[in-house]
Amino acid sequence: MNKKTFEVIILNGRPAAGKSEVIDYLKQIPVDERMERYHVGEFVEIDDFPFLWEDFEDDDLREEMGLPRLISNRTFEYRGKTYDGYVFKEKSYWNFLIKKINHSYTKLLRDRPDFHKNRKTAILEFARGSEHGGFKTAYDHLSDEILRKAVTLYIKVDFEESMRKNRRRYNPDKPDSVLEHALEDLKMEMLYKESDWEGFASDPEYLAVKEFKVPYGVFDNMPEKTDRPGVLGAHLEEVLTRLWRVYTGR
């Protein structure tokens, strides 16, 4: 531990909860101030959404070539009806995305072995619903190397707020955009209405994952704070200051 900044922050929450807005806010803060207030140095993001969307696009290209889709379908069934929208053929692919995060982090340290010694932070971002295994299953697939160093920041909104913000950010011209992509309402309901977060975070300070205890903090984004930089910054500082105390004391 470098005693100044978090090494790895796992950033979780429902879709459109405010994860990307928190990252965007941190980017605007000068690094010295960011380290002092939030214990986050220069940082690298590893988000599973670009992996996911690239696989959908790759399947589209295969289909254009007359080849079979390997990973995804263009339609999904829900409550006995068929709807348009990408879904994975196998639920296990959600865990494959976690393996991609592990792999990206390993390559980061391979190429920059002094990364954490230089007070830099890796931010790993993903959302999970109970339907595709939940957070507990996702964390079980994170590498020991990550879990040994990590803390978790969970952005908390209920499902209705997640749906509202998901609709608000939708830009049909940029379905691949981290800040402007959105899910169809029915797919949101199917994938994310049920969440295992509350049960997973039953301990007030730690997430139990394999033999590890991962410190965590909750950024309560109801009412919405991520649309007001001053309010966002103050609450984020409060949450991360408390999380830093748990992290350095474990």
Q: Gist?
A:
The protein has 250 residues and is α/β, with parallel strands linked by helices.
Can you characterise this structure?
The protein is an alpha/beta fold and 250 residues long. It has one domain: Rossmann fold (3-Layer(aba) Sandwich). It has ten helices and eight strands. Strands 2-5-1-6-8-7 form a six-stranded mixed beta sheet. A two-stranded antiparallel ribbon has the order 3-4. The longest helix has 21 residues, at 229-249. The mean pLDDT is 93.
Strand order of the largest sheet: 2-5-1-6-8-7
Could you describe the largest sheet, including whether it forms a barrel?
A: 6 strands, mixed
- Estimate percent helicity: 40-55%
Which percent range describes the beta-strand content?
15-25%
Write down the overall geometry. Answer: globular
Low-confidence stretches: none
SSE topology string: EHHEHEEHEHHEHHHEEH
Sequence-ordered SSE layout with sheet pairings:
Elements: E1 8-13, H1 19-28, H2 31-38, E2 43-47, H3 48-64, E3 72-78, E4 81-88, H4 93-111, E5 121-125, H5 134-140, H6 144-149, E6 150-156, H7 159-169, H8 185-192, H9 197-200, E7 206-209, E8 212-220, H10 229-249
Parallel strand pairs: 1-5, 1-6, 2-5, 6-8
Antiparallel strand pairs: 3-4, 7-8
Comma- or semicolon-separated keywords:
250 residues, 10 helices, two-stranded antiparallel sheet, globular, single chain, alpha/beta, Rossmann fold, six-stranded mixed beta sheet
